[in-house]
Amino acid sequence: VRACSPPRLRRGSASHRACLISRYNFIYAKERLEAEGILKRYICDLETIQRIIYVAVVESFRAAKMAFWKVKINVKDTLALCHRGGPSSLEVAVLDYIACHKDLYDVCSTVHEVICAMTKNPKLPCPGQVDFVVISSLIRELCCLAFSMQTLIPPLDIAFGIDGECFHRNMYYRSFDSDFTAPFVAYHVWPALIEDGTVIVKGEVVTKK
């Protein structure tokens, strides 16, 4: 940690939050489709491709949140030595400091961790079929975004879905190839973005009977 007096960013937190939400939507609309195109070179089945990308999102958020927690502990221990406010103001100071010094985050290590976790996931193709490194660019963007979302108060996160759950209109859109009369989720294409339990951006699922 470089200094005891981090810049004050809370006044710009609303615009920062809006930018992060916009970035999440952009990844869904553009970079997700680019990753699908890359995976189609190795896998013919669209469902498998979409499952891979969904797991990539979930694992990226999980790993980035864990990395953030470790960075936060180190920064908090250092800033506490010279901080003169109360616990709540120290918490804000820590979040502001991390938001300003993004190089504290070793994103390359997190990307490697995500790829290793995906390789071991029993729902995804075996390593011999496709090397998930081919979508490392998408994973890196997701990790950086998820890390930055933890500096907000409250933080933004994704909703973790389970195959076979009931379809919730307020949380998901149905994919074009869904059975629109089916009440259950066959699999997830993209997770919903939530803030303090409230859905901010709907996710996408495929529903089938």
UniProtKB/TrEMBL annotation:
GO biological process: mitochondrial protein catabolic process; mitophagy by internal vacuole formation
Keywords for this protein: Coiled coil, Cytoplasm, Lipid-binding, Membrane, Mitochondrion, Mitochondrion outer membrane
Locations listed in the record: Cytoplasm; Mitochondrion matrix; Mitochondrion outer membrane
Example of a GO cellular component annotation carried by this entry: mitochondrial outer membrane
Molecular function terms from GO: lipid binding
Mitochondria-eating protein C-terminal domain boundaries: 17-207
Any Pfam family: MIEAP
Top-level taxon: Eukaryota
Name of the encoding gene: Spata18
InterPro entries: MIEAP (IPR026169), MIEAP_C (IPR031981)
Protein name in UniProt: Mitochondria-eating protein
Protein family per UniProt: Belongs to the MIEAP family.
